[in-house]
What does this fold into?
Amino acid sequence: MPQDPSPRSSPAALLIPEPRAGRARCAACVLLAACFVVLCLTGEPLVPITHRACTQLAALQLGVLLKGCCCLAEEIFHLRSRHHGSLWRVLCACFPPRWHLALLLVGGSAYLDPQEDNGHSPHLALACLCQLLVLVLGLQKPSAVEVSELTESSKKNVAHGLAWSYYVGYLKIVLPRLKECMEEISRDNPMLRAHRDTWKLHILVPLSCDIWDDLEKADSNIQYLTDLPETTLTRAGIKRRVYKHSLYVIRDEDNKPRPCVLEFASPLQTLYAMSQDDCTAFSREQRLEQARLFYRTLRDILSTSRECAGMYRLIAYEESAEVKSHFLSGLILWHLQQQQHEEYMVQEELPWGEGSSELSLQVSASDLPQPLRSDCS
It folds into this structure.
Protein backbone atom coordinates (compact mmCIF):
# COMPACT_ATOMS: atom_id res chain seq x y z
CA MET A 1 0.00 0.00 0.00
CA PRO A 2 1.32 3.45 -0.80
CA GLN A 3 2.13 5.83 2.01
CA ASP A 4 -0.56 8.36 2.83
CA PRO A 5 0.55 11.85 1.97
CA SER A 6 0.75 14.31 4.85
CA PRO A 7 -2.20 16.68 5.33
CA ARG A 8 -0.30 19.63 3.84
CA SER A 9 0.51 17.63 0.71
CA SER A 10 -2.95 16.15 0.15
CA PRO A 11 -4.66 17.79 -2.85
CA ALA A 12 -7.74 18.53 -0.75
CA ALA A 13 -5.64 20.35 1.87
CA LEU A 14 -3.63 22.62 -0.44
CA LEU A 15 -4.51 26.27 0.00
CA ILE A 16 -4.80 27.24 -3.66
CA PRO A 17 -6.30 30.76 -3.99
CA GLU A 18 -9.43 30.88 -6.10
CA PRO A 19 -10.44 34.01 -8.10
CA ARG A 20 -12.00 36.77 -6.01
CA ALA A 21 -15.80 36.84 -6.26
CA GLY A 22 -16.47 40.60 -6.03
CA ARG A 23 -17.54 40.56 -2.38
CA ALA A 24 -15.85 43.94 -1.81
CA ARG A 25 -18.33 45.61 -4.18
CA CYS A 26 -21.23 43.85 -2.46
CA ALA A 27 -19.96 45.08 0.92
CA ALA A 28 -19.77 48.62 -0.49
CA CYS A 29 -23.40 48.37 -1.60
CA VAL A 30 -24.47 47.20 1.86
CA LEU A 31 -22.57 50.04 3.56
CA LEU A 32 -24.05 52.51 1.05
CA ALA A 33 -27.56 51.39 1.96
CA ALA A 34 -26.71 51.69 5.67
CA CYS A 35 -25.48 55.26 5.14
CA PHE A 36 -28.73 56.16 3.37
CA VAL A 37 -30.71 54.78 6.32
CA VAL A 38 -28.63 56.77 8.81
CA LEU A 39 -29.11 59.98 6.81
CA CYS A 40 -32.85 59.43 6.62
CA LEU A 41 -33.03 58.89 10.38
CA THR A 42 -31.30 62.18 11.11
CA GLY A 43 -34.31 64.08 9.83
CA GLU A 44 -32.27 66.81 8.12
CA PRO A 45 -33.70 68.55 5.03
CA LEU A 46 -32.97 66.78 1.73
CA VAL A 47 -31.56 69.79 -0.16
CA PRO A 48 -28.60 70.56 2.18
CA ILE A 49 -27.72 66.87 2.43
CA THR A 50 -27.76 66.52 -1.36
CA HIS A 51 -25.55 69.59 -1.76
CA ARG A 52 -23.01 68.32 0.76
CA ALA A 53 -22.95 64.90 -0.89
CA CYS A 54 -22.29 66.50 -4.29
CA THR A 55 -19.54 68.63 -2.78
CA GLN A 56 -17.84 65.60 -1.22
CA LEU A 57 -18.15 63.60 -4.43
CA ALA A 58 -16.72 66.50 -6.41
CA ALA A 59 -13.78 66.72 -4.00
CA LEU A 60 -13.00 63.05 -4.57
CA GLN A 61 -13.21 63.45 -8.35
CA LEU A 62 -11.04 66.53 -8.06
CA GLY A 63 -8.37 64.41 -6.41
CA VAL A 64 -8.49 61.94 -9.30
CA LEU A 65 -8.14 64.77 -11.82
CA LEU A 66 -5.22 66.32 -9.94
CA LYS A 67 -3.50 62.94 -9.78
CA GLY A 68 -4.01 62.61 -13.54
CA CYS A 69 -2.43 66.04 -14.08
CA CYS A 70 0.62 64.97 -12.07
CA CYS A 71 0.90 61.77 -14.15
CA LEU A 72 0.51 63.83 -17.32
CA ALA A 73 3.52 65.93 -16.31
CA GLU A 74 5.62 62.75 -16.50
CA GLU A 75 4.00 60.95 -19.44
CA ILE A 76 4.27 63.94 -21.76
CA PHE A 77 8.02 63.26 -21.91
CA HIS A 78 7.30 59.68 -23.10
CA LEU A 79 4.83 60.70 -25.79
CA ARG A 80 6.57 58.87 -28.66
CA SER A 81 8.22 55.95 -26.88
CA ARG A 82 5.19 54.82 -24.86
CA HIS A 83 2.12 56.33 -26.55
CA HIS A 84 3.08 56.37 -30.26
CA GLY A 85 2.99 60.17 -30.37
CA SER A 86 -0.75 60.37 -29.63
CA LEU A 87 -1.77 63.03 -27.12
CA TRP A 88 -5.22 61.48 -26.83
CA ARG A 89 -3.69 58.18 -25.68
CA VAL A 90 -1.72 60.07 -23.05
CA LEU A 91 -4.88 61.72 -21.73
CA CYS A 92 -6.79 58.42 -21.66
CA ALA A 93 -3.89 56.74 -19.84
CA CYS A 94 -3.51 59.45 -17.18
CA PHE A 95 -7.14 60.26 -16.45
CA PRO A 96 -10.03 57.95 -15.48
CA PRO A 97 -12.26 56.52 -18.24
CA ARG A 98 -15.09 59.00 -17.49
CA TRP A 99 -12.96 62.07 -16.80
CA HIS A 100 -15.33 64.27 -18.81
CA LEU A 101 -18.08 63.51 -16.28
CA ALA A 102 -15.65 64.21 -13.43
CA LEU A 103 -14.85 67.63 -14.90
CA LEU A 104 -18.56 68.41 -15.25
CA LEU A 105 -19.21 67.35 -11.65
CA VAL A 106 -16.34 69.46 -10.28
CA GLY A 107 -17.39 72.48 -12.30
CA GLY A 108 -21.02 72.17 -11.27
CA SER A 109 -20.08 71.87 -7.61
CA ALA A 110 -17.94 75.00 -7.81
CA TYR A 111 -20.85 76.89 -9.38
CA LEU A 112 -23.28 75.74 -6.68
CA ASP A 113 -20.85 76.41 -3.86
CA PRO A 114 -22.40 78.85 -1.39
CA GLN A 115 -20.62 82.22 -1.23
CA GLU A 116 -18.92 83.45 1.89
CA ASP A 117 -19.55 86.87 3.41
CA ASN A 118 -16.52 88.35 1.71
CA GLY A 119 -17.70 87.19 -1.71
CA HIS A 120 -15.09 84.51 -2.16
CA SER A 121 -15.59 80.75 -2.44
CA PRO A 122 -12.60 78.99 -0.83
CA HIS A 123 -14.08 75.48 -0.67
CA LEU A 124 -12.79 74.37 -4.09
CA ALA A 125 -9.31 75.72 -3.36
CA LEU A 126 -9.27 73.97 0.04
CA ALA A 127 -10.30 70.70 -1.64
CA CYS A 128 -7.40 71.07 -4.09
CA LEU A 129 -5.01 71.79 -1.23
CA CYS A 130 -6.09 68.72 0.73
CA GLN A 131 -5.99 66.41 -2.30
CA LEU A 132 -2.51 67.59 -3.34
CA LEU A 133 -1.30 67.13 0.23
CA VAL A 134 -2.58 63.54 0.16
CA LEU A 135 -0.74 62.93 -3.15
CA VAL A 136 2.52 64.42 -1.87
CA LEU A 137 2.44 62.37 1.32
CA GLY A 138 1.53 59.20 -0.63
CA LEU A 139 -1.58 58.44 1.41
CA GLN A 140 -3.61 57.21 -1.56
CA LYS A 141 -1.47 54.26 -2.59
CA PRO A 142 -3.47 51.08 -3.32
CA SER A 143 -3.41 48.35 -0.72
CA ALA A 144 -1.71 44.99 -1.28
CA VAL A 145 -5.13 43.39 -1.81
CA GLU A 146 -6.05 45.93 -4.50
CA VAL A 147 -2.75 45.39 -6.32
CA SER A 148 -3.20 41.61 -6.14
CA GLU A 149 -6.77 41.79 -7.43
CA LEU A 150 -5.78 44.14 -10.26
CA THR A 151 -2.92 41.95 -11.47
CA GLU A 152 -4.99 38.76 -11.19
CA SER A 153 -8.01 40.18 -13.00
CA SER A 154 -5.83 41.55 -15.81
CA LYS A 155 -3.75 38.32 -15.84
CA LYS A 156 -0.49 40.22 -15.49
CA ASN A 157 1.06 38.15 -12.71
CA VAL A 158 4.41 36.45 -13.23
CA ALA A 159 2.59 33.16 -12.64
CA HIS A 160 0.18 33.74 -15.54
CA GLY A 161 3.00 34.33 -18.00
CA LEU A 162 4.95 31.30 -16.81
CA ALA A 163 1.90 29.02 -16.96
CA TRP A 164 0.95 30.09 -20.50
CA SER A 165 4.55 29.80 -21.69
CA TYR A 166 4.81 26.32 -20.18
CA TYR A 167 1.58 25.24 -21.86
CA VAL A 168 2.10 26.78 -25.31
CA GLY A 169 5.82 26.14 -25.55
CA TYR A 170 5.92 22.63 -24.11
CA LEU A 171 2.80 20.81 -22.90
CA LYS A 172 0.70 21.56 -25.96
CA ILE A 173 3.49 20.08 -28.09
CA VAL A 174 4.34 16.91 -26.17
CA LEU A 175 1.11 15.79 -24.50
CA PRO A 176 -0.87 14.97 -27.68
CA ARG A 177 1.88 12.51 -28.69
CA LEU A 178 2.43 10.98 -25.24
CA LYS A 179 0.09 8.01 -25.72
CA GLU A 180 1.74 7.18 -29.05
CA CYS A 181 5.14 7.18 -27.34
CA MET A 182 3.83 4.93 -24.58
CA GLU A 183 2.36 2.51 -27.12
CA GLU A 184 5.71 2.31 -28.89
CA ILE A 185 7.75 1.66 -25.77
CA SER A 186 5.23 -0.77 -24.23
CA ARG A 187 5.66 -3.30 -27.06
CA ASP A 188 8.72 -4.69 -25.33
CA ASN A 189 7.59 -3.99 -21.77
CA PRO A 190 4.63 -6.00 -20.40
CA MET A 191 4.69 -4.02 -17.13
CA LEU A 192 3.67 -0.85 -19.00
CA ARG A 193 0.74 -2.55 -20.72
CA ALA A 194 -0.56 -3.65 -17.32
CA HIS A 195 -0.77 -0.02 -16.16
CA ARG A 196 -2.46 1.72 -19.09
CA ASP A 197 -4.63 3.68 -16.67
CA THR A 198 -1.60 5.77 -15.63
CA TRP A 199 -0.25 6.53 -19.10
CA LYS A 200 -0.02 10.21 -18.34
CA LEU A 201 2.61 12.85 -17.77
CA HIS A 202 2.76 13.34 -14.01
CA ILE A 203 3.84 16.92 -13.34
CA LEU A 204 5.19 17.64 -9.87
CA VAL A 205 4.35 21.15 -8.63
CA PRO A 206 6.12 21.84 -5.31
CA LEU A 207 4.72 25.12 -3.98
CA SER A 208 8.06 25.79 -2.30
CA CYS A 209 9.63 25.84 -5.82
CA ASP A 210 12.34 23.51 -4.50
CA ILE A 211 13.06 21.34 -7.54
CA TRP A 212 15.46 18.41 -7.75
CA ASP A 213 17.34 17.93 -10.99
CA ASP A 214 17.82 14.23 -10.18
CA LEU A 215 14.63 12.56 -8.92
CA GLU A 216 16.55 9.49 -7.76
CA LYS A 217 18.40 11.69 -5.25
CA ALA A 218 15.14 13.20 -4.03
CA ASP A 219 13.73 9.77 -3.11
CA SER A 220 15.47 6.40 -3.30
CA ASN A 221 12.15 4.68 -4.09
CA ILE A 222 12.08 6.53 -7.43
CA GLN A 223 14.28 4.80 -9.99
CA TYR A 224 15.01 5.84 -13.55
CA LEU A 225 13.99 3.23 -16.12
CA THR A 226 14.39 4.65 -19.63
CA ASP A 227 13.51 7.55 -21.92
CA LEU A 228 10.42 7.68 -24.09
CA PRO A 229 10.84 8.10 -27.86
CA GLU A 230 11.86 11.62 -28.75
CA THR A 231 9.65 14.22 -30.43
CA THR A 232 11.69 16.26 -32.91
CA LEU A 233 10.39 19.57 -34.29
CA THR A 234 11.78 22.66 -35.95
CA ARG A 235 10.64 25.48 -33.69
CA ALA A 236 11.58 29.15 -33.21
CA GLY A 237 14.53 28.87 -35.57
CA ILE A 238 15.96 25.76 -33.88
CA LYS A 239 16.43 22.88 -36.30
CA ARG A 240 15.37 19.46 -35.05
CA ARG A 241 14.57 20.56 -31.51
CA VAL A 242 14.19 17.51 -29.24
CA TYR A 243 11.44 16.96 -26.68
CA LYS A 244 11.46 13.84 -24.53
CA HIS A 245 10.23 12.41 -21.23
CA SER A 246 11.78 10.08 -18.69
CA LEU A 247 10.07 6.94 -17.46
CA TYR A 248 10.55 6.04 -13.80
CA VAL A 249 9.64 3.14 -11.56
CA ILE A 250 8.08 3.99 -8.19
CA ARG A 251 8.49 1.27 -5.56
CA ASP A 252 6.07 0.93 -2.65
CA GLU A 253 6.68 -0.47 0.83
CA ASP A 254 6.41 -4.03 -0.55
CA ASN A 255 9.01 -3.20 -3.24
CA LYS A 256 6.41 -3.57 -5.99
CA PRO A 257 7.23 -1.40 -9.03
CA ARG A 258 4.81 1.05 -10.65
CA PRO A 259 5.86 2.74 -13.93
CA CYS A 260 5.31 6.48 -14.16
CA VAL A 261 6.26 9.26 -16.60
CA LEU A 262 7.41 11.90 -14.19
CA GLU A 263 8.95 15.38 -14.17
CA PHE A 264 8.90 18.68 -12.31
CA ALA A 265 7.19 21.80 -13.62
CA SER A 266 10.34 23.56 -14.80
CA PRO A 267 8.95 27.17 -14.66
CA LEU A 268 9.04 26.92 -10.86
CA GLN A 269 12.83 27.12 -11.14
CA THR A 270 12.34 30.61 -12.55
CA LEU A 271 10.26 31.64 -9.55
CA TYR A 272 12.89 30.25 -7.19
CA ALA A 273 15.70 32.05 -9.03
CA MET A 274 13.75 35.33 -8.93
CA SER A 275 13.37 35.06 -5.16
CA GLN A 276 17.14 34.57 -4.83
CA ASP A 277 18.07 37.53 -7.04
CA ASP A 278 18.37 40.92 -5.34
CA CYS A 279 17.39 42.75 -8.55
CA THR A 280 13.83 41.38 -8.54
CA ALA A 281 13.02 42.09 -4.86
CA PHE A 282 10.92 38.90 -4.85
CA SER A 283 10.23 37.74 -1.28
CA ARG A 284 9.57 34.19 -0.14
CA GLU A 285 5.90 35.04 0.55
CA GLN A 286 5.51 36.45 -2.97
CA ARG A 287 7.15 33.34 -4.39
CA LEU A 288 4.69 31.10 -2.56
CA GLU A 289 1.75 33.19 -3.77
CA GLN A 290 2.99 33.09 -7.36
CA ALA A 291 3.57 29.32 -7.16
CA ARG A 292 -0.04 28.81 -6.06
CA LEU A 293 -1.30 31.07 -8.84
CA PHE A 294 0.90 29.18 -11.31
CA TYR A 295 -0.73 25.90 -10.31
CA ARG A 296 -4.24 27.37 -10.49
CA THR A 297 -3.61 29.00 -13.87
CA LEU A 298 -2.02 25.87 -15.35
CA ARG A 299 -4.88 23.75 -14.01
CA ASP A 300 -7.46 26.05 -15.59
CA ILE A 301 -5.61 26.17 -18.93
CA LEU A 302 -5.24 22.40 -19.17
CA SER A 303 -8.85 21.77 -18.12
CA THR A 304 -10.05 23.60 -21.27
CA SER A 305 -7.44 22.12 -23.64
CA ARG A 306 -8.80 19.43 -25.94
CA GLU A 307 -5.33 18.45 -27.16
CA CYS A 308 -4.12 17.63 -23.64
CA ALA A 309 -7.29 16.09 -22.19
CA GLY A 310 -6.61 12.92 -20.21
CA MET A 311 -2.84 13.03 -20.81
CA TYR A 312 -1.59 14.73 -17.65
CA ARG A 313 -1.81 14.66 -13.87
CA LEU A 314 -0.86 17.70 -11.80
CA ILE A 315 0.63 16.76 -8.43
CA ALA A 316 0.83 19.88 -6.30
CA TYR A 317 2.18 19.59 -2.76
CA GLU A 318 3.57 21.65 0.07
CA GLU A 319 6.19 19.95 2.17
CA SER A 320 5.95 20.30 5.93
CA ALA A 321 8.88 21.07 8.20
CA GLU A 322 9.35 17.38 9.05
CA VAL A 323 9.57 15.65 5.67
CA LYS A 324 9.61 11.86 5.57
CA SER A 325 12.40 10.12 3.69
CA HIS A 326 10.00 8.65 1.12
CA PHE A 327 7.45 11.44 1.12
CA LEU A 328 7.64 12.08 -2.64
CA SER A 329 7.29 8.45 -3.73
CA GLY A 330 4.39 7.97 -1.31
CA LEU A 331 2.62 11.01 -2.76
CA ILE A 332 3.11 9.79 -6.33
CA LEU A 333 1.88 6.30 -5.46
CA TRP A 334 -1.19 7.84 -3.84
CA HIS A 335 -1.96 9.67 -7.09
CA LEU A 336 -1.38 6.51 -9.13
CA GLN A 337 -3.79 4.63 -6.91
CA GLN A 338 -6.35 7.42 -7.27
CA GLN A 339 -6.13 7.20 -11.07
CA GLN A 340 -6.63 3.46 -11.00
CA HIS A 341 -9.66 3.91 -8.75
CA GLU A 342 -11.09 6.63 -11.03
CA GLU A 343 -10.62 4.43 -14.10
CA TYR A 344 -12.36 1.53 -12.36
CA MET A 345 -15.29 3.74 -11.38
CA VAL A 346 -15.70 4.98 -14.96
CA GLN A 347 -15.74 1.42 -16.29
CA GLU A 348 -18.39 0.47 -13.74
CA GLU A 349 -20.57 3.47 -14.58
CA LEU A 350 -20.44 2.70 -18.35
CA PRO A 351 -21.18 -1.07 -18.73
CA TRP A 352 -20.95 -1.38 -22.52
CA GLY A 353 -20.51 -5.15 -22.46
CA GLU A 354 -17.49 -7.39 -22.78
CA GLY A 355 -15.38 -6.73 -25.83
CA SER A 356 -17.80 -4.08 -27.13
CA SER A 357 -17.07 -0.36 -27.34
CA GLU A 358 -20.38 0.73 -28.86
CA LEU A 359 -23.64 1.54 -27.20
CA SER A 360 -26.65 -0.67 -28.06
CA LEU A 361 -29.67 1.58 -28.57
CA GLN A 362 -33.06 -0.05 -28.07
CA VAL A 363 -35.74 1.84 -30.00
CA SER A 364 -39.40 1.06 -29.40
CA ALA A 365 -41.58 0.45 -32.43
CA SER A 366 -44.50 2.16 -30.74
CA ASP A 367 -44.90 5.90 -30.36
CA LEU A 368 -46.67 5.48 -27.02
CA PRO A 369 -44.76 5.78 -23.72
CA GLN A 370 -43.36 2.44 -22.56
CA PRO A 371 -42.79 1.27 -18.96
CA LEU A 372 -39.23 1.29 -17.65
CA ARG A 373 -39.51 -2.17 -16.08
CA SER A 374 -38.86 -5.10 -18.39
CA ASP A 375 -41.22 -7.46 -16.54
CA CYS A 376 -44.31 -5.36 -17.38
CA SER A 377 -46.58 -6.64 -20.13
